Amino acid sequence: MIEVKDVYFSYDDREVLRGITLEIKQGEVFGLLGPNGAGKSTLILHLNGILKPKRGEIKIKGINPVKEPKKVRRIVGIVFQDPNDQLFMPTVFEDVAFGPYNLGLRGEELKEKVIESLRLVGMEGYIDRETKELSFGEKKRIAIATVLAMDPEVIVFDEPFANLDFRGKKLVENIIRRLRTQGRTVILASHEPEYLLNCDRIALISEGRLVKVGPPQDVLIPELLRENDLDVPPLIELFYDLNLGIPKNLDEAMDLILRKIRAP
Ligand SMILES: Nc1ncnc2c1ncn2[C@@H]1O[C@H](COP(=O)(O)OP(=O)(O)OP(=O)(O)O)[C@@H](O)[C@H]1O
């Protein structure tokens, strides 16, 4: 689905991506983990042709985003880290309608798409609000709706949980769960391992290099996280020490602990 082949990128003469090679399969929930400045956002901006590799190549379903950015942008939707980079229209309706309007939707069909997308992020009551009046968390949810409204096969979330309260985080988790059941490909970039427990695979990136890629139990190793300036959540530390594997969530964590306690 997504092939990243030996990609290098520099801002002026500062090299930020140094030979990244990755393959992401259709329907995968794929985590991009790395400390601040590792190059996660830079890599993401390559996936729909906003940035062009200095060396190497990217293919999305066989299409090169540099050569055919419009085609690729119909496949890959990116939810930017800062919603202010995503929202630029006066009202919420206009912001969410912008993408589907460009895809050809009009009238009732367009309105229904906007309402449906806002409902998915719990913001249908905000349809006529002025975007600039909204709080950061509200803007973040509208930004997600603008991407959902275009029904992309691949959705990339850059630090989707940053600056969200408990309810906002749960809502994003539920959206990701729904996208997974729909068989969409989801990419989640974060510097916090605890948000990537549920991923199928995780790529650990540091200083523009791929350090490791694999399922959570192979990548979320306390020593490896520390070596790469990442936080080690107590849950991961505990489960690693007890040799219990990596739980996907608190329910599974409880289950694993109870099984361990009850084991003869
Ligand atoms: N537009 C830009 N011009 C120059 N340098 C940039 C630009 N954007 C990012 N950088 C630099 O590139 C490096 C990688 O940044 P990037 O935003 O890709 O990292 P990141 O892993 O997403 O970090 P974070 O977790 O802080 O979002 C950083 O050193 C950053 O300062």
TrEMBL record:
Keywords associated with the record: ATP-binding, Cell membrane, Membrane, Nucleotide-binding, Translocase, Transport
UniProt membrane topology term: Peripheral membrane protein
InterPro entries: AAA+_ATPase, ABC_transporter-like_ATP-bd, ABC_transporter-like_CS, ABC_transpr_CbiO/EcfA_su, Co_trans_ATP-bd, ECF_ABC_transporter_ATP-bd, P-loop_NTPase
Gene Ontology BP annotations: cobalt ion transport
SMART domains assigned: AAA (SM00382)
Location of the ABC transporter domain: 2-232
Chief localization: membrane
GO molecular function: ATP binding; ATP hydrolysis activity; ATPase-coupled transmembrane transporter activity
UniProt subcellular location: Cell membrane
SUPFAM superfamilies per record: P-loop containing nucleoside triphosphate hydrolases (SSF52540)
GO cellular component, one term: ATP-binding cassette (ABC) transporter complex
NCBIfam families xrefs: cbiO
Similarity comment: Belongs to the ABC transporter superfamily.
Biological role: Part of an ABC transporter complex. Responsible for energy coupling to the transport system. Probably part of an ABC transporter complex. Responsible for energy coupling to the transport system.
PANTHER family (UniProt xref): ENERGY-COUPLING FACTOR TRANSPORTER ATP-BINDING PROTEIN ECFA1 (PTHR43553:SF24), HEAVY METAL TRANSPORTER (PTHR43553)
Name this protein carries in UniProt: ABC transporter ATP-binding protein
